[in-house]
């Protein structure tokens, strides 16, 4: 077993804040989808699938936005709900598109958007290749609809013109950064020997910005926070997102597949350029296990990562980014820093 220190913990943590109730966010999301579907009946099936795809998530992004907004004294519950719903809808859009890129047909243990439209086409007697094309095309279109809805929700959340302009800029930056990160991820999959710095840059673009930076900054902007606070939240969010993704990589290999939600060898089989793959490449180790049975492949990968020191190095790297996030939170008001320190611990201090 690795002797590396667990992910960063603070020695003295104040009493845990109450977790915000997010039902108003879910209600705002469903209202938007229902109104959009009613306004364009021809797109109702697509919106129905978007709504289904948005169910069952952890609501991490809404929780971050709501926490930042309330800790900074924000009191506009309607704007808060709309903006938070927008980020959850953006997350749904990216998941739908991710499944297309990864050629996946399930999400959270169920048929995803592409699979649902493919099944409907097959039931109508379409050829398998035609049904698959229809399913994938419908998923791309549904994801596009969700991106547009997300931008509308976030950018139009506030009645104040200046605040709306700040929110619109934040969500636009999130979409652009994530698209760039997704492209880099796809390009890395075709590259030999992934470079660690490039993988970390991909994590920051693909995960940090829309999952952490943007919701935190949007919540603060809604509360009227100044540019210095938004900049501190951006720094914290970038570091936190990388730590979160590295932890996911480790859990994906060493965690329980039933809890993690995917096979412990799926990343390696799909050619994913993860931090673990980059650390193995630095050590001259080829992690390919594509011709091995699943259980043997998982055991082989765990042994390679453990014995090479890549697991310990990844844990240390995640801890360093966690410490950087904590340090950045020193630049925000006390109440917000206290609330986010607890969230940071919950999101990154997971059993490895």
UniProtKB/TrEMBL annotation:
InterPro entries from the UniProt entry: Isoprenoid_synthase_dom_sf (IPR008949), Polyprenyl_synt (IPR000092), Polyprenyl_synt_CS (IPR033749)
GO process annotations (BP): isoprenoid biosynthetic process
Keyword Transferase found: yes
Keywords, sorted A to Z: Magnesium, Metal-binding, Transferase
Gene3D superfamilies hit by this protein: Farnesyl Diphosphate Synthase (1.10.600.10)
GO molecular function list: metal ion binding; prenyltransferase activity
Pfam family, one: polyprenyl_synt
PROSITE patterns assigned: POLYPRENYL_SYNTHASE_1 (PS00723), POLYPRENYL_SYNTHASE_2 (PS00444)
Cofactor needs: Mg(2+)
Record bears the keyword Metal-binding: yes
Family indicated by similarity: Belongs to the FPP/GGPP synthase family.
Name this polypeptide is given: Geranylgeranyl diphosphate synthase type II
Species the sequence originates in: Amnibacterium kyonggiense
Lineage of origin: Bacteria, Bacillati, Actinomycetota, Actinomycetes, Micrococcales
